[in-house]
Amino acid sequence: MDDFVVKCKYIFVSGGSCTADAERAPIIASVARLLKARALKAELLRLDPACNVNLTLMDGRDCGEHYVCADGGAAPFVFGTYERLGGLTTSSAQCVTFGSLLSDLLEVEKRTDRDIPLVGFEDTMSEFIAGSIIAASGKSQADAMLIDIGGCPEDLSSRLVQRAIQRLRYEMGDHNSTAIHIITLPEGSDAARLGAVRLAWQSLQAQGIRIDMLVCRSKTPLSAQLKERIAILCDLPTEAIIYVAKDVTLTLPTALNNQRMDNLLCRQLELDTREPRLSEWLELLEAIDNARDRITVALVGRRLHHSALYISVQEALRHAALANGCRLELLQVDAGDLLGDEGVDLLADADCILIAGEEQLDPDSEIAAANYARLHAVPLLALGAGTAAVVIEYARNVLGMKGAAVRGEDSGHCVYPVMQVTEEFHAGRHLSLGCQNIAITPGSRAAAAYGKPDARERFRYLYRMNNDFRESFSEAGLRVTGTTHSRDIAAIIELPSHPWYVALQFHPEFNSQPQQPHRLLCAFIAAALKRRDLD
Length: 535
What we know:
18 helices
């Protein structure tokens, strides 16, 4: 690190809890949005405390949804917040886990063919962490690099990260880096909230962590007196104490800008830039306030109690609803509840139905939703593994293939294997993951929505339509209107005789942003509004 040259400014962001990723990510994304509004290029690097090396196989019950980045790689669900709110283009390489660093360290030691000194864990790991930060900034052309420090300061991984950051900040010199810490304040008296700040501050001081700004999340605003007392306690200027309301997302960039947080950051980092231009973002917030109509979408899935499992789907639906001038009313329907005699009655109040499939599919419950939508002419959109429910339902109830199912490794036990596992599964890679180009059939609903003959989408799937049955489905009315260029995989399936009955092998929610909602989702909501108006 002796020849270390600062190529961009660094903003280190830490939080106070291992479960605070969903709370920290919107603030980081909002800072990125404000920097972009000042014509500055911002990029992100996440230092994740997980010991996992392969994020593709992480259990959704632990990490939330499996997000697919622009490069087709897997990343934690917070990357969706970085893209949607921050307007960033992310890649899987921007998530460095503690496990991957440890794996690299062990590989270096094994490849060494000469005598080496004893490898000290803490010093060497800190060196690896610092090297990852330097490497990321070396490849970047950014004006500012946002470093998201996962976990909480008391964790071993976070302590090693902070040790590396201390060393980096010393090497960088003044005005090349700044550190932000985020804390959630309890409700109650000012004395109780000040006590929480004191405990957090003492913990940071005990570990030698120096911060330049404190962001306080709270349901109630900070009084001027409390803000001043916090500033004195933390030895920070009053303007460096920032208040953020809980459960607020889209208004965060303007809320931070109103407190001049971006001004302070630019001053600390000596960034010469213009005033932020947030007119487009303000227009978006105004459109949200002016939306009076409501659209009810039934979201059919599993484990809906997990708030982060379908977060991208929910946000993308909100974007599409807003593009159609209405607010989203989400009706969450657990797929398992549809199997009873009166289960489908749960869908009666919905204007449209979205099946958010999961990789490990037991499609019978999702089939009930697909059957209801087809028979009652309710607009339906199936995503990812939800395609299996649409295909199997049609095979069983229209083509008369009573044994239709998903063919796995025991293909001999499946009479009509209309869906089959991918080649990646048989090769031991479990999932097909990545970005692929799609050729769209002219005259289809997908072609009308996209307005062009091709598209590029993000895939994550285990099952795909068996091409041996494609002609049979087409003759019966269910047609493939989009295929991947690479391997002729059915990417879009439509029922033209239905008002809107579309299944997508890919996940359009990963390509949706508030100001650029996905066109297929917009068309889906528009079809639901049209049907409701006709009724």
